[in-house]
Amino acid sequence: MRTGIGRLRLGACLSLSGKHARFGTQARLGLEIWHSSNDATELVIEDDQSRPEVLETAMRRLAPRCDLMLGPYSTHLMRRAGQVAASLDQLIWNHGGSGDDVEAAHPGHIVSVLTPTSRYAEPFIRHLTDTTEPLHLWIIQGKGSFGRQVADGAETTARSLGIRTVRLGPGEPLPSAVPAAWALFCSGSFEEDIETVNRARALLRPPRTVCAVAAGVREFGDAIDDPHGIHGVGQWFPGSGYEAELGPAEPDFLAAYKDRAGVLPDYPAAQAAATAAIATHCARLTGSTTREVLWSAASALETATLFGSFKIDPDSGVQVGHQAALVRWGTDGPAAV
């Protein structure tokens, strides 16, 4: 890697096809918008097809040609990306994999900007404590480690606040006998959460309050009948109002995205643009793209982007500054709570 910075080449493997394409394409557009106001950079993106083996091949091809490497979207793919980065003794900037195990897997090789999955549910659980009557909370996890880690965090936070919980695994039937006031939190894939919410709302005694990870993106409104009143959690939501110290200001980013896509962005676009801004800032601040120097710069950095606060644990690289966002769907769409 170079010392003495001129034009920076930023590489990224993103899911432009396959099961993660709806989010990978948003991340690409977010990076392209960031890049449009950064003339001293070159952006190189390859399609990982939502497949770990394709991702690894693409990363090993890109890494020698790029000064900085951004990770893929999804915890599953980022797990492989971290392994590849460690094997190449390179640093990868993680904007798309929030799994606790992924963020802490390779200290010195992964810098994460995302709230870890175990803290996803915190804003919703704390919101429940503001209700006028006690609620029982049913937590339904999806398949895979992402859903399990989000559900683990939800259960831990709820119990610490005195909320009684019931935990269900993927595909388990919803309860036929429930208390008068109960809440539902589900943490699966987009498709799993849609199916769970539909089943729950069809019960004779549906949940008083519903929150789904899937409801944190705008596509949820088109995928479900009447999303009104449903809560969603996610890494970011338009209108969060963060003052950006690095990278584009939120109003400018939103306007540019809507001009190109016709809709407002979801968090994959914002987190990718924010990560590019942080990575290039560290490189230009230090005048180096070597792993050790970039790691030191990132470890000492405490700042904010349109995505929110940034601060990592200097020993592990886990994000400790950023907080998840809570939204509620109304008649005019979702809005921050």
- Please provide the count of β strands: 14
Number of domains: 2
Major sheet summary line = 7 strands, mixed
Treating each run of at least 4 consecutive H or I residues as one helix, how many helices?
Answer: 11
Judging by the overall fold, what is the CATH architecture of the largest domain? 3-Layer(aba) Sandwich
Unreliable parts: none
Task: Write down the secondary-structure element order.
Answer: EHEHEHEHEHEHEEHEHEHHHEEEE
Lateral strand order in the biggest sheet: 7-6-8-9-10-13-14
The name CATH uses for the topology of the largest domain is Rossmann fold
Description:
- The protein has about 325 residues and is an alpha/beta fold.
- Helices cover about 35% and strands about 20% of the residues.
- It has a seven-stranded mixed beta sheet, with helices on both faces.
- Helix 10 crosses helix 11.
What's the quick description here?
By secondary structure, the chain is of the alpha/beta class. Helices cover 37% and strands 19% of the residues.
Keywords:
2 domains, 19% strand, Rossmann fold, five-stranded parallel β-sheet, alpha/beta, seven-stranded mixed β-sheet
